[in-house]
Amino acid sequence: MKLDHLGEAAVSSAVFAGIGLVVFGLAFWVMNKLSPFSIKKEIEEDQNVALAVIMAGVIIGVSLIISAAISGS
């Protein structure tokens, strides 16, 4: 990659990172709205490890989907 394209690549990366964060936040917000209980309360106060593992899987899954969508594969 030539040095003159570095600025364009940096801006492109920043835009895609911003879009990815917005989509990730939207997915997490939808999960919170669809659950019949408070996810934060269940994980933090009640120490529900099973829910924490499920949420970790959801976070990884959404991140992989966003990554694949951004990279175009």
Produce the secondary structure layout.
Blueprint: H1 6-34, H2 39-44, H3 49-71
Could you characterize the architecture of this molecule?
The model has no long low-confidence stretch (mean pLDDT 86). It is built from three helices and no strands. By secondary structure, the chain is mostly helical. The chain has one domain (3-71). Helix content is 79%, strand content 0%.
As for the number of domains, it is 1
Measure the end-to-end span.
21 Å
Shape: elongated
Residues in helix, %: over 70%
Order of helices and strands: HHH
Q: Helix segment count? A: 3
Low-confidence parts, pLDDT < 50 over ≥5 residues?
none
Main beta sheet, described? none
Mean pLDDT: 86
Coarse structural class: mainly alpha
Q: Report the strand count.
A: 0
β-sheet strand percentage: under 5%
